[in-house]
Amino acid sequence: DGDAVATLRTPIVAVLGHVDHGKTTLLDRIRGSTVTEGEAGAITQHIGATAVPLETVSELAGSLVDPTDFDLPGLLFIDTPGHHSFSTLRSRGGALADIAVLVVDVNDGFQPQTIEAIDILQRTETPFVVAANKIDTVPGWNPQDDAPIQQSYDAQSDRARETLDERLYELIGELSEHDFSADMYWRVQNFANNVGVVPTSAETGEGVPDVLTVLMGLSQRYLKDAMAIDAEGPGAGTVLEVKEQKGFGTAIDVVLYDGTVRADDTVVVGATGDPIVTDVRALLQPRPLAEIRTEKRFEQVDAVSAAAGLKIAAPDLDDAMAGAPVRVVRDRSREEVVQEVQEE
Ligand code: GTP
Ligand code: MG
To answer: Tr-type G domain: which residues (predicted)?
Structure first.
């Protein structure tokens, strides 16, 4: 009937938590990559973005997920640094998120940046699940590579299972001290009022099927209305980084959370001075499952729709600012869009 047809966009999932608790390793397990190994001092220093298609989610989740139950296209994961000096990046990651995974090392429990992450999630009212990570380090653990957690539990000695349960209950206690009523995820009926705790090992993959299942379930259940966008509308996003792209000059890494950006669009980008108004020279998209921070083989494309990580190459981007908004002008006046960017 001529009305714009709403499309369901990919939910944006922020991965937050204290330094070294296993955020990047968890994403490596999902991507089948080794981004962690390439990090200087094994510390994440930038926000990352990785698109995980529904196909991959359902492959990894195995019997736990029936892809025909879902009409969301997959998940866009945002990796954030846990080191204390990167609090701006954590807030930025949190602000982009539709939902989140809070990664907590089961041995280490709540640490300063765990609490900082919880505060961000509370402030931005972002629903989240807790990945109680590194369960493979529980004394006497009998690893079950890539198994759903129930199967993995069944393969443990009573002793190992009891030790893990004790640690999980400590975590649940710490969450309740921060005003979150939490329980093991399989006991949570209403995820709107309760935080689900999922035992995981990013090292062995145990519990990873469960994390993906809970994230898809949460998204499908609570985010569907929010994910309905006019995919043809003018794109809106946030700058992650400003850097040289070989053959294209200065480019910006962007997380696009609404609409579409096309290769012939004019965009307005927040900058250290006045907003930059510039014409897109090229749109470069990472391959599915590639981390935008480390991707080497970007594909040059005509258009990108939300949600996605992409590089935008254009003239005059040198003063573009990480964390600033990016807006496509399209049918609107430049002045209007410049003002919108200034006000954000
Ligand atoms: P930052 O990004 O710097 O905050 O750290 P991070 O949370 O991304 O941690 P990262 O994934 O870099 O992991 C830190 C260390 O813990 C690495 O040596 C990983 O191999 C290890 N690690 C992560 N997850 C697990 C796990 O489930 N089990 C075990 N045994 N080791 C893990
Ligand atoms: Mg990391």
So the answer is: 8-223
Residue 134 Cβ contacting ligand 1 at under 6 Å: yes
The dihedral of CA 314, 317, 321, 322: what is its sign?
A: positive
Distance CA 279, CA 256 (A): 17
pLDDT one-digit tens code per residue, 245-268: 999 999 999 999 999 999 999 999
Which pLDDT does position 87 carry in this prediction?
96
Q: How far apart are CA 322 and CA 319, in angstroms?
A: 10
Task: Output the pLDDT for position 5.
Answer: 63
Whether residue 80 is annotated as binding a ligand: the answer is yes
Percent of the chain at pLDDT > 70 equals 99
Question: Which residues contact residue 24 at a Cβ distance below 8 angstroms, ignoring those fewer than 6 apart?
Answer: 35, 36, 39, 44, 48, 79
Closest ligand 1 atom to residue 25 Cα is: 11
On whether 17 is known to bind a ligand per the annotation, the reply is: yes
**Are β-strands 195-199 and 128-133 bridged in parallel, bridged antiparallel, or unpaired?**
parallel
What is this structure's pTM? 0.97
Distance of CA 79 from the midpoint of ligand 2 (Å): 7
For residue 140, how far is its CA from the centre of ligand 2 (angstroms)? 27
Contacts of 335 (CB under 8 A, 6+ apart): none
Contact 8, 75 (CB under 8 A): no
Total residue length of the chain:
344
Backbone angles phi, psi at 59, to 5 degrees: -60, -45
